[in-house]
Amino acid sequence: MPDNRERAVDFLETRRDGNIELLREFLALPSVSTETEHRGDIDRTAYWLKERLIALGASDAAVYPTAGMPVVCGTIEAAGNKSVTLLVYGHYDVQPVDPLDLWESDPFSGKISGDHLFARGASDMKGQIIAVLAAIEAAQQNGGLPINIRFLLEGEEEIGSPNLKEFIRTHGDLLRADCCLNPDAGMIAPDRPSICYALRGLAYFELRVQGPAMDLHSGIFGGAVHNPAQVLCDLLSGMHDTAGRVTLPGFYDDVAGLGAEERSELARLGMDDRYFLQQTGVPALWGEEGYTALERTGARPTLEINGLLSGFTGTGSKTVLPAEAMAKISMRLVPNQDPKEMRSKLERYIEARVPKTVTWQLDQFAAGPPVFSERTSKENRAFAKALETVWGVPPIFKREGGSIPVATYLSELLGMPSVLTGFGLPEDHIHSPNERLHLPTWHRGTKAVAHFFYNLS
Amino acid sequence: MPDNRERAVDFLETRRDGNIELLREFLALPSVSTETEHRGDIDRTAYWLKERLIALGASDAAVYPTAGMPVVCGTIEAAGNKSVTLLVYGHYDVQPVDPLDLWESDPFSGKISGDHLFARGASDMKGQIIAVLAAIEAAQQNGGLPINIRFLLEGEEEIGSPNLKEFIRTHGDLLRADCCLNPDAGMIAPDRPSICYALRGLAYFELRVQGPAMDLHSGIFGGAVHNPAQVLCDLLSGMHDTAGRVTLPGFYDDVAGLGAEERSELARLGMDDRYFLQQTGVPALWGEEGYTALERTGARPTLEINGLLSGFTGTGSKTVLPAEAMAKISMRLVPNQDPKEMRSKLERYIEARVPKTVTWQLDQFAAGPPVFSERTSKENRAFAKALETVWGVPPIFKREGGSIPVATYLSELLGMPSVLTGFGLPEDHIHSPNERLHLPTWHRGTKAVAHFFYNLS
Predict the structure, then answer these.
(1) Could you give the CA distance from residue A165 to residue A185 in angstroms, rounded to a whole number?
(2) Cross-chain CB nearest to A317 (options B232, B287, B366)
């Protein structure tokens, strides 16, 4: 006689079309967070989700207002105090559909063609949310959920989650769980499931160098005054050595090393130099000596100039000796670097090098720590086993160079690890016309999530 | 019995008030070249000047159209073929008057208060033009002009003389003369007349460094791609050494040295470090070792960053790895540097240093050679003697760091030297509200110009 797990998975097989219809209902709601005319649609979508959570037994499900778009939370107390509690993260907002004329079907109709369902948000990430809801229903209908589940469904991810950190800070009790499932991180190819176990942190700065009291005539004063743009270039140029390493004293002090086993696991991703050349269009790659491009972007800290501005930047010529020069500078951080300490490292570098001919000012705009979870953590192992059960191959563990703000906030504020995964594919055209969901992959995903519940319990 | 010269100078004494009234008539014409609504005023001013030249005997005086504002030319054939011919340069256009509410009198009324006449253009340079016309009249009324005089009066100096070079190129016959008197260069103080004998040349470039095909996410690609802003900073930073010298190979090869006598003459100007600190508001001066600030700006070539632009430059943070970075770079040149050769020196520097990870492009926007006339040239001696006769002290010979386009064009196209002088003062508020003319200095100036005519003959 099949056990609950097997029955739940079978149930998902028979519910496939029903789950697709539920997804199409969700996709028909144009919850575009970037456009004010969709504010009403955002609210309708949040209440639609609240009803779904109530239907799944989250009797406390509610729509929580924020300074921006509302957050939907709820709890399914299914397995008692002693059981594992999982927080499911999702965002119900979507990108705008422009340019509309490039869509081959109505972006909110959820047209199905072959193996694909076409709609804005199909892959990013309404499809991922429905995959989790489908797995919950399947377990409930077949002996009951083996774990407790909570929800954190926001409506501002596509505009940078400006109110999420504050919401998490002030609603810790609503969200308390053993770990978070975040299915917004995608996979590499239909046959290559993956789990992301490391995200880089971010420290972002603006450096201003001030010289003369006002812009000067470069003919009259050029040669007697230290040009602040030149001083800025000297400072920025000195921040890397010829081996591509950052020269700020102590920059690498706290960096966790990369072991041989981990390096070989990363190499399995197949993201080689050719991949990076193709993605970026540069004539040649560059970076810290001794590391592959993938290691440089995923496992090594870096420092970038994000912007430069000084003097005259229009068409033609103007002979100005600028009063000021500005650079935006950011660092991507890896375990165990602290974004707050990075500020003083940068300050000490500048203090040691800046000449007396100028004054300077440093402002910090972001300070997010890196996110890292051991590949062998309970939740990563539980999800990896689920993926291997469904796909027949072990997932690839990857590191990513960017950051996922919610993972940072949950880690920082609640000490909660996240399983960063999902069933979106690189060719899903997210944020572009004709966004689509590969239904066979998504359907496998619903089963993997169900297995995860049982593996976690 | 007084000779012609003495009688002419006495005549100027008695004509003082009449000349001021003529100047006020000129100043009442709002010939603002930067504002299209004053286009009619520009034309009226040009025709007003033409009438003045005809009244002084330039029967061929005419208004010449250009692609922009017209040029007024004319010839007074007073002294025959064998005599010296002087070209008088002037510009009849003026700066805008904004902000109008900071003016204490109508900027076109020519209000007189104490020793000053207040009006837009009073010092820059309608007053200077009237000083020359007054001296011509004085000579004509007292035995006749001892030289021939031609005029080149443009209406676009305040917008950079965009059509003047072409005009001079195509009207050489109209302008042919032994030397040019350009009274747009001012003096240092009411008791310190001066002649400028050297102007720096200009070579102006835009350098673009291109990296990836489009702006990238600095988290995803930072560390694997050479940031073009970083490459640009490396290139720019390397253009100076720690002694403040330009490192471009061969940059100083053709530079004419500065002798001890000339250095001590320049030192007499009294423009010391304190002067430059006060003028610029920098915490400390900077520049090429072994030279004073005045020598650095007047007699040494320099290289400046005039502008920088790359990536994100708005408020806050955006984690972009820019596709491109741009710098505006200019060189101020001294005898005997060639602005065209400077381009290849810059190109060779870049070629030797630029990495294979980027591509680059260099455009040139200006290439003006330096202007230099010996302090002992016939015309400089003639004007110096005139100044000493009127002021009782020898003038100071100075070098200037900027350029005066017309002096460059006359030198380049017609081989004509210019006497760069004038009776405007640093405290005249040119280009600012309440521009004024110091009438006692200006009146002395009318006499000095008359003496110059006789000294030159």
Answers:
(1) 19
(2) B366
What pLDDT does B316 receive? 87
d(CA B24, CA A280): 65
B222 to chain A: closest CA residue: A297
- From start to end of B279-323, where are the E strands? 302-311, 320-321
Q: How large is the average pLDDT for residues A208-233? A: 95
- CB A276 to CB B202 under 8 A? no
State whether B101 and B220 are in the same domain.
no
Question: In terms of DSSP H, where are the helices of A56-180?
Answer: 127-140, 164-170, 172-175
What length is written for chain A? 457
**Cβ within 8 Å, pair A218-B293:** no
Q: Give me the helix-helix angle, A39-55 and A16-27, nearest 10°.
A: 150
Statement to judge: residues B156 and B219 lie in one domain: no
Give which of B208, B233, B285, B302 to mutate to test A binding, by max A Cβ within 10 Å.
Answer: B233
Range of the domain at B232: 201-255+301-368
- Are A312 and B307 inside 8 Å of each other by CB? yes
Domain shared by B223 and B338, yes or no: yes
Last residue of a domain, one of A327, A351, A368: A368
Q: Give the closest-approach CA distance of B113 to chain A in angstroms.
A: 31
Q: What is the pTM of this model?
A: 0.87
Contact at CB, A223 and B357, closer than 8 angstroms: no
Set of chain B residues whose Cβ sits within 8 Å of the Cβ of A327: 229
pLDDT beyond 80 at B180 = yes
**pLDDT recorded at residue B12:** 98
Mark whether A340 and A380 lie in a shared domain. no
B272 lies in some domain: no
Q: For residues B187 and B421, is the Cβ–Cβ distance under 8 A?
A: yes
Q: What is the CATH number of the domain that holds A225?
A: 3.30.70.360
The domain tally of chain A equals 2
Helix (H) or strand (E) holding B90: strand B85-91
Task: Specify whether B35 is located in the same domain as B135.
Answer: yes
- CB atoms B240 and A230 under 8 Å: yes
| CA–CA separation, A101 and B422 (whole Å) | 66
